[in-house]
Amino acid sequence: QQQVKQSPQSLIVQKGGISIINCAYENTAFDYFPWYQQFPGKGPALLIAIRPDVSEKKEGRFTISFNKSAKQFSLHIMDSQPGDSATYFCAASISGSRLTFGEGTQLTVNP
Amino acid sequence: GAVVSQHPSWVICKSGTSVKIECRSLDFQATTMFWYRQFPKQSLMLMATSNEGSKATYEQGVEKDKFLINHASLTLSTLTVTSAHPEDSSFYICSAYTRTGGGQPQHFGDGTRLSIL
């Protein structure tokens, strides 16, 4: 009930391409779905987050798509850049409190 | 934006010693602080949840006598790894939660890399 499944485990994209990372959750009580970016040796930083009352949210090159009925959400990074190379985590929580993290995706953007 | 300061960022110590890690919310009051542990190439695993002025709630499998958590104020929580051993070597991350309306509810520190020799 508390799991969040994330895929793929690793992703290699060419500069300018679209990076897509997917997550699925089980607990229908979750109402806050953030994506975090983590660089080596650093804590995770919030990229973008969505609540289940909307199906899509866009901030700059980052877009979350949310499918409540399928209990899935995804992160799209448009025009991917080498500086986007990092580990990305999806998460889910109730009211933004106790976060349940996905397994993480190691993104590499080749120049 | 809200900042969470975690100190130290890196510590190396001998087996058997105790290590204290501090987590401070610099510009907001945190009703709850969370402590995570992260092994290389793995996800963040929640260790415990602490609320100011009350005992921490530990996740299943986390030894509360090994990982002592104190949350003395709304801006400071500490994690003490007691009698640390090499298997306790990991990346420890705290986060501070605030229920203020709008904005990001949870803010992460930059982590503490603990190496036990």
What keywords describe this structure?
heterodimer; A: 111 residues; mainly beta; six-stranded mixed β-sheet; B: mainly beta; seven-stranded mixed β-sheet
Account of the 3D structure:
The complex is a heterodimer of chains A (111) and B (117). Chain A is mainly beta. In chain B, the strands form 2 sheets. In chain B, strands 2, 4, 5, 6, 9, 10 and 11 form a 7-stranded mixed β-sheet that branches. In chain B, strand 7 and strand 8 form a beta hairpin. The relative contact order of chain B is 0.33. Chains A and B meet through strand 5 of A and strand 9 of B.
What sequence of helices (H) and strands (E) makes up the elements of chain B? EEEEEEEEEEE
Binned strand content of chain B: over 45%
Q: In total, how many beta strands of chain B?
A: 11
Greatest interface and its residue counts?
A: A-B, 22 and 23 residues
Tell me the helix content of chain B: under 10%
Beginning-to-end CA distance, first to last residue of chain B: 37 Å
- Indicate the structural class of chain A: mainly beta
Radius of gyration of chain A: 13 Å
What share of the residues of chain A lie within helices? under 10%
The value of Rg of chain B in angstroms is 14 Å
- Averaged pLDDT of chain A, please? 95
**Low-pLDDT regions of chain B:** none
Distance between the first and last residues' Cα of chain A:
40 Å
Mean pLDDT of chain B: 92
Q: Tell me, briefly, the overall form of chain B.
A: globular
Topology summary:
The complex is a heterodimer of chains A (111) and B (117).
Chain A: E1 4-7, E2 10-14, E3 19-25, E4 33-38, E5 45-50, E6 56-59, E7 62-67, E8 72-77, E9 86-92, E10 100-101, E11 105-110
Parallel strand pairs in A: 2-11
Antiparallel strand pairs in A: 1-3, 3-8, 4-5, 4-9, 6-7, 7-8, 9-10, 9-11
Chain B: E1 4-7, E2 10-13, E3 19-25, E4 32-38, E5 45-51, E6 57-58, E7 67-73, E8 76-81, E9 90-97, E10 106-108, E11 112-116
Parallel strand pairs in B: 2-11
Antiparallel strand pairs in B: 1-3, 3-8, 4-5, 4-9, 5-6, 7-8, 9-10, 9-11
